[in-house]
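User: Hey, quick favor. My workstation is busy. Could you predict this chain's structure for me?
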Amino acid sequence: MTRFIKLFEADNILLAVSPLEAGEKAGDVVVATRIPRGHKMALRDIAADEAVVKYGQIIGFARQLIASGDWVHEHNVYLRDFERDHAFGTNARPTRMLREDDRATFQGFKRQNGKVGTRNYIATLTSVNCSASVARFIADEVNRSGILADYPNVDGVISLVHGTGCGIDVKGPAYDVLKRTQWGFATNPNVGGVLMVGLGCEAFQIPRWMKSYGIEENATFRAMTIQESGGTRKTVEAGVKAIVEMLPIVNAAERTTQPASELVLALQCGGSDGYSGISANPALGAAVDLLVAQGGTAVLSETPEIYGAEHLLTSRAETREVGEKLIERIRWWEAYTAKHDMEMNNNPSPGNKLGGLTTILEKSLGALAKGGTTNLRAVLEYAEPIRERGLVFMDTPGYDPVSATGQVAGGANVLCFTTGRGSAFGCKPTPSLKLASNSVIFEKMREDMDINCGDVMDGVSLARKGEEIFAEILRVASGGATKSESLGYGDNEFVPWSLGATM
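Assistant: No problem, here it is.
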């Protein structure tokens, strides 16, 4: 059966829900050549240099005449700059908020600072790559010992290691970003105890880091270096001892009923395809609108993947200052990529293109749908603490592990990740829900996918799918395992953004 979708009246292309074969009819148009599923077909002749329109927006321009019924993809579409109206705040509207009595709840860990966690981990963090192995040895030793069986409220001991911490300018952006990221993870509400492990001679000095945040060692925050402890074996022994002493204190935390307004939801997409912008992403956007109505927070990110669609966000900016800050970050990225002999249209990836995405504009328009329809309330730097409720934007790279690391450092306590090609991802200490954009990848990767959004193409409404996603977010926030957690993902996906020169 021929299956296709025309998304907006102004569109001059359609999307093939299933492959379209040459000679078939898609509505009134005869298919000229085979169109793979998730790809685009011209609904009419598109003249050379004429705009190709999807979602009612320009996604590129025709390289040459694209005849009615032709396959529309990178072989006949190019990208160039064109004027956009950023129209600050013109589409901002009062946010619909539910009454307190009508708001949902979940079972979370209320921390002393008022934040609420969805998990209760002890984290071994590192100041430098040189201490990464020792941090892992410590966590592995505790997890292997069987002692955690005596502490059922502790979700585990995790090692969050990275590849930097030395060879950087201690007065530069690389240091500042790493400092902010490490502090964000140490204070994320999903972390009940922290052990910071260093080598001792690195640029990122633990005492300086602690002093900058006014923290001293205490029962649930310990620090040590390999050099001061006397080598690898002694550091591992001391680290295990420190964590064993933390366990009763961290285990004392219990889940209690908390309002959904305490959820901070990170939004990610990876391995996107031609379906992502019409199924998983807008369905997640519907769930975001539900969360915002509860008084909760959603964090849209991946600046290179909203590039070209930023005018749709600035039109929803609650203030002009918020909109202008987003544009400032876009301009920074243009300069940053140019400096390194790159271009913003290097994204989409080869996998995205195989899935039907042709230009960054097309990808961005689909990715933006994750953010729902409510006002944009703030624009944050990478790993900056998230203090505003509602929809906020955090400036991050599009690379998923780096982006998610920034969001969790900002305070995200749950994460939703949409995928069309089938990304494998976890994000300890924050549980990560996987949303498949199409039923084919959901069936093929059932062990990795939490929710199938492919049924949107079969008639399930976005509103209903959004409700399903929101209910699953509450279940996971209350302790229900995600597929990635069951598979053991999450320790290796801690990847702080590395800026500046490595010396």
